[in-house]
Structure formats: structure tokens, C-alpha cells
Amino acid sequence: MRALAEGMAPMRGPLLPALQAVVEQHGFVHDDDVPVVADVLNLSRADVLGVLTFYHDLRRTPPTAHRVTLCRAEACQARGAEATVAAAVDRWAGSTDVEVGEVFCLGNCALGPSGMLDGALHGRLTPDRLDALTEGWPA
Amino acid sequence: MNPVVWVPADAAAVSVGADDVAAALEAAGATLRRNGSRGMLWLEPLVELETDDGRVGYANVEPGDVDALLGGALDDTARCVGVVDDHPWLAGQHRVSFARVGVIEPTDLAAYRADGGLAGLERALTLDPAEVVREVTDSGLRGRGGAGFPAGIKWETVRTAQADTKFVCCNADEGDSGTFADRMLIEGDPFTLVEGMTIAAIATGATEGFVYLRSEYPHAIRTLRRAIDVAYAHGVLGASVLGSGRRFDLDVRVGAGAYICGEETSMLESLEGRRGEVRAKPPIPALEGLFGRPTVVNNVLTLSAVPMVLADGGAAYAALGTGRSRGTQVFQLAGNVARGGVVEADFGISLRELVEGYGGGTASGRPVKAVQVGGPLGAYLPPSRFDLPMDYEAFAEAGAMVGHGGVVVFDDSMDAGAMARFAMEFCAKESCGKCTPCRIGSTRGVEVIDRIRAGTQRESNLVLLEDLCVTMTKGSLCAMGGLTPMPVRSALEHWPEDFGVEPAVADAATDAMSESATSTTGGARP
């Protein structure tokens, strides 16, 4: 952790890239990482926590085995995204292996509904196509 | 000789299976080239086969179609769209910023140069910085991010400012729903952006640049990083730009999922490693921007128009467009539209030409009920307003905005009341929290709209909603809180029945609203 943050320290404005690197390598930012990052970058813990809590991407809990992130912005809503969202939320309600999240725009607005399945972008994501693409995923 | 096929690596094409098609074509013995997307997104994956006549396109190709495609069995079917360059949907457009997108391999610098790339930068290096800025001013180029501020005036402010360091920042935090032109340009022709930023640096005396690119665009991040590496390797970037002895360093910074970071001062805060909270202006970023230094902040499409302005001269660019909206605009057709994609046209094209002509109506085949122009903070417009010409002034006069050129189409199943509620809900979720009208007003807005829709003290709540919209419009620090009332007000004005409101009552409410809310906060997107 210390080495990771030290690698970012020479950059201009290193805090956000440092926290992103932690998420990329460890999946999330543990509370114990906060004082380490603060120390290396010569910031207060409040500075680090402030940034950590501002950005959606900076997870503070371990990631699940699978992630479904569906776009709920206007263009995808116009193509029926809410039905796909409802189907996903319903299918994986209470699941500890699959996390269903929302995002506002993936830039695929002509081929919606769009979503990310374990980080891969998919378009034309009807409930049926979502089921086909996630066949074999845990309940 | 092996057949040569082009398969887009654009995220939209990949989202509907382009990578699988590419792998199947390679396995079948074809020589594979990866381009950006032509922007005819309803045809994706659109595979192009090189022939003596040109590159012939095949639409909606799946891996199982590969043998038929290479064997000629698709040629006489509707799946074959003919020579792609001659496709009527493309041929009617005026592609300036998107001239190379979908045509060349995105990170092939030799192909970029062969197609006229770097001519603008080479010319800029022979001019005085003041002359470079004058070309941009003469071109009439205005910010494509949404606010439409003249680029030349901004650059001149930075050029004449005194400082030890100056910056050029590209706002590629394209968070507006219905917009994807920044993404497609970066994925399809990233050198145009690199060249535009380098010209901006040469013109203003900046030595460092950042592209703030959203994390939701992983394909664009990879392509741009590769392009920057290639540019360094060939001396386009670095200690001596094209051997001129002038330094320009360029880096990509990735956003972290905050919509508000598309607002320029919030983006600067984020680039400095802080919470993306909006700054009060003044001071303007051109004088005190990144790390307190003079900073050019422009959108991807603004900077990407610059190489053409310098290569052909500002007057040539100014000859395009209408009124005070010069040049071309890259419109994006999205949502429930039959033929979605990128339409680059001169300003002045009507909404009807876009939605009914290029777009072909809805994808569902049902009647169009509304379009939302300019992103989540733009107005909802009914088909009766489709004769509106797409230019900054005409839209502003109509109480709407062109914004970043996104047009989202809705069919008659849309519930305008629900969309108005969503606008407030989105603002509540994505507000940076710095100013009260936006942070609190949006939450109260959701509640008030809920009460109106439920019929609870409807008339007094309509007055309250009007009051709230005025407060948000006039009292917010940036365009997020300042423009959220725009979709709300327009939805109520055109479809009061979706709020359970009699048209006459709504008229009185929206008349009062538009009278007291005509002045918006301006500012950049969002």
C-alpha cells in the first residue's frame, strides 16, 4: 500500500490516482489504507476521506464475484432500461455474489439499454439478453 | 491474397459483438484492420470489406455470418449496404471533426499524416502565438461542451496572462446522457485531439496538458493512452514538438464516476486530487485555473476542430454554419431512434431533419412524443417544435439549449412527469453539494413533483415548484443546479397531463416560471 502511494507521490495532484490505483489492485480502499495514503502524500486523513467519499468509483467494501452495472440515464430509459434494471434487481436480490449497480451514461446511447457485466460493455440489453449473457452466474 | 476487412473497435460496436466478429474473421483467414465507428450505430457491427470499388459494408454482422460474408453470399441481401463512403446517411453530412473517424486505424500516425493530419500544428509552429489565437478567433469557433463561449477569447486571456506555468486541459468528462461524440472521436481519431491540444499549448505558452477522461469510457482511455505514447515516440509531444524546441507534455487523468466533474471548475478540483466541488467564478480558469495557473479548458470537440482551423485558416471554418454559430456541430441521435448515431452538419439544420430524416423516427415504430436536446439539463421538446434550427441563439430563445449536441428521442410511452422527477432525482444524486439551491432544492424538487403527481394540494405545490425552479436557476453556483429546472419546466409546459394537471393551470404556472427564469447561470456543462 505504501509503495503504491509512493509511486504516485511525484505526480501533480496525486491523491485521486493513488486511490484509483488502490481500488484497481485491491478491489477497494480499506479504512486502514487511509492513514497510510495520507502519510505518504503529506495530507490529512480528512483530506483523504473527503475524496474517498466523494467519488462513486472509490469502493470502500470488498467487491463481489460478479458486477452488473446498468445505465439508468435518459437515453437508455427511452429504450426500456427500467425493465432490465427491475429484472436484474429482482433476480439478484439478496445475492452475496452478484452486485447490481446503476450508472448514468456509458456513452452507448444509440444502442441502449446499456450496461457493464464484469467490466465489459454490452448494448441492446433487454432482460432476455441479460439472462443469456449471465448464464451460469450464481443466484 | 487474403481479403482485408475493417471491424470497428469502437465501444458501441464492441457492445454488440464486434470483437467476436473480428476474431471469427481472423480465424477465417481475413486480414483484420480495426477502425473507429462510422457513426451509423444502428448498423453495428458494421464490417467493411476492401474491394476495387471501395470499402463495402455489411450490417449487423454476427460471428456465424463470416463465411457467408467472405464468400459473397451476403452481397445481394439487405445486409450489404454498398460502398460505405457513398452511403446516403453519410454522404449528406459535412464531416469536418469526424472526417477520419471510422476511416483510418486510430493510432496509425502515418495514416493520420497522410490524411492531412499535423498540417495545422506545422502551420501553427510557423506563426506567432498571437497569430495562432487570431486564426481561432476569426474562425468563430465556440466551446462545444455546452456553454458556447468563443474559444479565441479564452485563449487570448491565457496567452496574455503572466505565469511560470500554464496548462491546457481537455474536458472529456462526457457525462450527459445521449452524448457520445467525444468518446467516438477519441476512440476513432485520437491524434486530432492531441494535435488540437498541442496547438492550444503553442498558442498560449502552456507546457503541460491533461485530458480528464471519464472512467466509464475504458476503451477510449486505452486508445488515447496508446496514441499519446505514439505521439511521444514520433516527437509530436515532448521536449521539442515537431523539432520546434517548444515543450508540451500531455497526460490522461481518469475520472472516478462523478457527473459534476464535467463542470470545468469541478474538473480542475478533481485534477488537483480533491473532491470535485465547483469553484465560484471569478476568478476565471483562464487566469487562475489548474493549481492556480492560467489554464485553457476546452471540450474534446472544440480542441478537435482546431487542427482544421489552423490548416485551412480561420476564414474557411467561419464560412460554415449560421449566424453566430460557426462551423459544424456533431449531433448525436440517441435513445428510442431507428437510426441512431453521429450526424456532423453545419449549424442551422432543423431538429426535424435530424430526428425524422437522419433518425427515421423511433426504434419502436411508435410516434415520437418528445426529444431531449442537450443532455439531462436540456429541455424536452414536442414534435410541434421540430422546425427549430439547431443553433445556440435560436435554442436559447426557445428556452432550450443545444448543449453538447445530444438528441434523445422518446416514443409515446414516455411519462413526462416521471422524466421531470428523474431530472430532480439525478441532480440530487450528482450534486457536488457546495451550494444549497442545488443540493437541497433537488431533493425538495423530487418531493414536490411527487405531491403534484399524487394530487396532493396540487395548485399550491405547482406554485412551490415554480418558486423552487426560480431559486435553483438564479441561486446555483453552476449549470447543474441552474439548468435542472429546464427539463422540469419544459416537461410541465408541454405535457401537463402527465403531472395530472389541467393544461390551463400548467400554462399559468409555466408562464410565470419562464418570465422569472429566462436568465440562466450560463457556465459550462453540466
Q: Low-confidence spans of chain A: pLDDT under 50, at least 5 residues? A: none
Seen as an oligomer or otherwise, the chain set is heterodimer
* Total helical segments of chain B: 22
* CATH superfamily membership of the largest domain in chain B: NADH-ubiquinone oxidoreductase 51kDa subunit
- Sheet with most strands of chain A: 4 strands, mixed
Mean pLDDT over all positions of chain A: 96
Shape of chain A: elongated
Strand content of chain A: 5-15%
Cα-based radius of gyration of chain A, to the nearest Å? 18 Å
H/I helix tally of chain A: 7
Note the gap between the termini of chain A: 34 Å
Distance between termini of chain B? 51 Å
Percent of residues of chain B in helical segments? Answer: 40-55%
Describe the protein's architecture and organization.
The complex is a heterodimer of chains A (139) and B (526). Chain A is elongated and about 50 Å long. The longest helix of chain A has 12 residues, at 15-26. In chain A, a hairpin with a 2-residue loop joins strand 3 and strand 4. Chain A has seven helices and four strands. Chain A has 139 residues and is an alpha+beta fold. Chain B is α/β, with parallel strands linked by helices and 526 residues long. Chain B folds into four domains: 4-91, Glutaredoxin (3-Layer(aba) Sandwich); 109-319, NADH-ubiquinone oxidoreductase 51kDa subunit (Rossmann fold, 3-Layer(aba) Sandwich); 322-411, Ubiquitin-like (UB roll) (Roll); 416-517, NADH-ubiquinone oxidoreductase 51kDa subunit, iron-sulphur binding domain (de novo design (two linked rop proteins), Up-down Bundle), CATH 1.20.1440. Chain B is built from 22 helices and 16 strands. Chain B has a five-stranded mixed beta sheet, with helices on one face. A five-stranded mixed beta sheet of chain B has the order 13-12-16-14-15. The interface between A and B is large, with 39 and 60 residues.
